[in-house]
Design brief:
The complex is a heterodimer of chains A (about 190) and B (about 180). Chain A has 9 helices and no strands. Chain A is mainly α and about 190 residues long. The relative contact order of chain A is 0.21. The chains are: A mainly alpha (about 190), B alpha+beta (about 180).
């Protein structure tokens, strides 16, 4: 159990996908102008990363590894991610059309989110079993969502303040992101996973 | 999400107290039938984006766009006097998005994880863990459908009519930083 706990803390905080591995920066800057959009995007990404990680684990173990097709990994994983996003869209639409109205707009953004592919490739690198892979993917994406919501909250506050003209918009966003990354560096050394 | 008092819109901005803290969006009335006005949300810019948005796939809709729009159609009360083609401002409560996200994504993921761990504990193999996770996902999705049905029946997920678009709210003031 302690091993799993360390894996979760490591994936979510110590090696945060956005602030430590610098993945998913496009959505990090693009979808964090409001907290509600950050929550929607974070939840959708968490679901898709976890589902695609499960499937990619199966693809890796059943196809790529036994037949020595490692050179097809990136292409195969991209295909799986696109399929997982389409599956998620179909599921949300089926579960509740009303929810699809609210949450559906974030799904196309996930296909082009490099954090999804990045987490899946890290799983292969880590040589994890199924449960470890699923936990790692879930924790990584929860870390992504946490940072998105934190950053969106900060940007909402910044928008209410007078920012020098030269720093208005993306520049103050990047400065805030760098300060947030410095804060997350405080977690370094908590886990070596 | 709290709004500082200094930036809060004037009281009369909202038709009723319940309309505070709403996530707003534009919709267009596309049909009047069965005593109701049917509206479709205007495609939202989910990505704040950059200047090359026209070149990237973000924001473009997958699949058949008209079918997607049809799936997003919702009903508004027929006694508002809306006409086809009219733009309106609709909104859902801020916590609705969180509730929706937790129901649609959180619940299936939690049950998926529980199923995977259960499979691992029982079978002590990756195959059993994967089977447990897949079973958990199906159960979770079923649970999500039930919870979503309950929320829909309560009207929590349905967007509410707030006002006609371009209809200036009484006593509304512009609050841009530039003044």
């Amino acid at each position: 159990m302690e091993h799993y706990l360390l894996l979760i803390i490591s994936a979510a905080l110590v090696s945060n996908v956005v602030l430590m591995r610098f993945l998913g920066l496009c959505s990090f800057m693009g979808v964090t102008t409001r907290v509600d959009t950050a929550i929607g995007m974070g939840a959708a990404t968490t679901f898709c990363i976890t589902i695609s990680a499960m499937i990619d684990w199966g693809v890796e173990k059943a196809l790529l590894e036994p037949y020595e097709l490692g050179y097809l990994r990136t292409v195969a994983f991209i295909l799986v991610i696109a399929a997982a996003v389409q599956f998620t869209e179909a599921v949300v639409r089926k579960v509740s059309p009303a929810m699809f109205q609210m949450l559906g707009i974030y799904l196309p953004l996930i296909t082009t989110n490099c954090a999804v592919l990045g987490v899946n490739l890290l799983l292969v690198e880590g040589k994890m079993n199924f449960i470890e892979s699923t936990l790692f993917a879930l924790a990584s994406s929860l870390g992504y969502s946490l940072v998105m919501v934190l950053f969106a909250g900060l940007r909402e506050r910044i928008a209410l303040n007078a920012v020098p003209r030269l720093f208005a918009g993306p520049p103050i966003g990047f400065i805030t992101a760098s300060l947030l990354a410095l804060a997350f560096m405080g977690f370094s050394g908590m886990s070596t996973n | 999400m709290s709004t500082p008092e200094s930036s809060a819109p004037p009281e009369s901005f909202f038709p009723g107290a319940d309309d505070r803290d709403m996530v707003e969006g534009f919709a267009r009335v596309v049909a009047i039938s069965g005593g109701k006005a049917w509206a479709e949300p205007e495609p939202a810019q989910s990505c704040g984006g950059c200047h090359s948005a026209g070149l990237c796939s973000i924001g473009k809709q997958m699949g058949n766009p008209s079918a997607r729009q049809m799936a997003k159609r919702f009903a508004l009360p027929g006694d508002l006097g809306l006409v086809v083609g009219e733009r309106v401002v609709v909104g859902v409560r801020e916590d609705t998005l969180t509730k929706g996200a937790l129901t649609a994504y959180g619940l299936p993921l939690a049950v998926l994880l529980a199923g995977g761990i259960l499979g691992q504990e029982i079978g002590h193999s990756d195959a059993m863990a994967a089977l447990g996770a897949a079973g958990g996902l199906l159960v979770g999705l079923l649970g999500a459908r039930i919870v979503a049905g309950i929320l829909s029946a309560r009207g929590v997920l349905t967007p509410r009519f707030l006002r006609r678009a371009f209809e200036a709210p009484p006593d509304a003031a512009c609050h841009t930083e530039q003044g």
